[in-house]
Amino acid sequence: MREKMSQYRECEDCKSKADCLPIAGRWLCEPCEDVADMAATHQPKEETEMKVTAYVFKTNGVVTTMQVSGMREIQQVTGGYFEIVMNGPGWCLYGNESGRSDMLPMNEPARMFVAGKHNVPMGSIISLHGDMILVGTNDEGGNAELDEGVADNAERCQMYDPGEITITTFD
Known about the structure:
Layout: E1 7-10, E2 17-23, E3 26-29, H1 30-40, E4 52-57, E5 63-68, H2 71-78, E6 82-88, E7 91-96, H3 108-118, E8 132-137, E9 143-144, H4 148-155
Antiparallel strand pairs: 1-2, 2-3, 4-5, 4-8, 6-7, 7-8, 8-9
C-alpha cells in the first residue's frame, strides 16, 4: 500500500493518471518511481575534484576521449537531458533521452559498442541517435576510470581515422 502522502494525479514522467508520490521534487507513479530509483544509483554525481577519461562516440564515426568530472560534461556531449543507454560492471553509456524523437543522426560507433557488449550482430541493434559518452563508474555511482578492456572495446568502434587535412594554395 502506498504512503498517505501520495496523491491521485498525473505522473510527471509517463503522464498517466495514477497514485503518485513526491520524489526529488517531482510527482511520480510507482513504476516511474522504481525506474527513478534504479537510475539514481547509476547517475553521475555533481562535479567532483576527480576527472576521469571518458570515451565519446560521435555520429560522424569518430571516437574521442575527454576528461569528465560530472553531469555537465555528459550534458554537453549528449546535447541536453540524458539517459542510460546501457551499463555494465564499472561503466555506463549515456545518450540524449530524446535523440530518436528529435531525429538526431544515427550513431554507428555506439551501435557497434552495444552490439559487442551484447555479443549480437550490429544489425540487431535497431537505432541509437546522437553523440554518446561512455564513463567509468564506481560502486557509489560516481565517476571512475574505465576498465582497460572496456576502453579497448570503445577505441575499436572508431569507424575511420579522421587524419589531417592539408590545403595547399597556388598563387
